[in-house]
Amino acid sequence: MSNATNLSALHNIYRDFNTAHPRAAAEFRDAMEDVLLDAGLTYDRVSARVKSWSSLKAKAKKRNAQGELAYPDPWRDIHDIIGVRITTFHSTEIPQVKEVLADNFVVLRSVDKAAQTRISGSFGYGSHHLILAADERTPSLASYQGLQFEVQIRTVLQHAWAEFEHDIRYKRRGPLDPQVDRAFTLAAGLIELADQQFDQIAAVHEPADAAQGLAVPELGSAGADITLTAATLPGVITMLTGNRFPQSRSEHYGWLEEILNANGITTAGQLRELLNEADIAAVSGALKYQFTPGHVRIIDDLLLHRFRELHIERTGNTGKRPKLRADRLAQRLQQLRG
């Protein structure tokens, strides 16, 4: 079969896939966010894309040193037709993300590009690449079971370096000035050092006291009357729990305000009562968190622990993916009941 015939067949498969899955990128992004949030992880952002036809066609045409097609069966051999990128705030979060993904997907390949760069004795591209496949553990991707896709995990600093370097090196014609190569190398070294400093900052603020059963601090009489809003919640929760639970993504506090209000909790004093040590211990013991939950996750679970089915009725149709939320809350409630 000629290469032209192969490309024609590939184009038909690609077109049919896009017709059948017009929201593929959004569905993979949403599924990844759900998996990370359900594990209680914090992260910078998740993005996803379907490879463009021009990019897929160019990759399908590539040949190896022997002149043979690098991807004889491109739809099966090219694994980044669906590509997901997860950026984290610091590198110590990357192993946690990898662990959560391994618990929810089939891991076909794992490559540490940062380690490869260090082994070569140089500075440069840093990222973790995973080739995954969806299975029954991720119901929201049921229509994609068996399809392989790529996930890149980077820190925000690694991502900034990679994006700029790619734009300069691969999108501009002509050879690069050696000074540009040297500047990229120096910048990569500085980024590695900056990532190390971010890791140290994160370690200082790690909620090491979480397992020690610290009592929730008291609010003064005036503080107890503070109205809970998306703007005040991060500070109030930190005031009540210290560094025990990490802050969630800023855009999630508006939804946290919504589910608290739905259950009649509108003041800092009422929130203090919800965040009591006995209930935190009960929830943590029953759900066996893999990682320390953030503000939004722990409070959502405490609301479920206190209000049970009422919490599901009041908030089951809220959030970014309301179709999935009620079922997930029901599963967690079953765990809470033992």
CATH fold call of the largest domain: Beta Polymerase, domain 2
Radius of gyration equals: 23 Å
Runs in which pLDDT lies below 50 for 5 or more consecutive residues are 116-124, 207-216
Name of the level-1 CATH class of the largest domain? Alpha Beta
- Strand portion: 5-15%
How many DSSP H or I helices? Answer: 15
Total number of distinct structural domains: 2
Q: What fraction, in percent, of the residue positions are helical? A: 40-55%
Measured distance between first and last alpha carbons: 59 Å
**Major β-sheet profile:** 5 strands, mixed
CATH homologous superfamily grouping of the largest domain: Beta Polymerase, domain 2
Quantity of strands, as a count? 5
CATH architecture of the largest domain: 2-Layer Sandwich
Q: Could you state the order of secondary-structure elements as H and E?
A: HHEHHEHEHEEHHHHHHHHH
Question: What is the topology?
Answer:
Elements: H1 3-20, H2 24-38, E1 45-50, H3 53-60, H4 74-77, E2 82-88, H5 94-104, E3 106-112, H6 113-119, E4 128-133, E5 148-155, H7 156-170, H8 178-204, H9 233-241, H10 253-262, H11 268-274, H12 277-287, H13 295-307, H14 309-315, H15 322-336
Parallel strand pairs: 2-5
Antiparallel strand pairs: 1-2, 3-4, 4-5
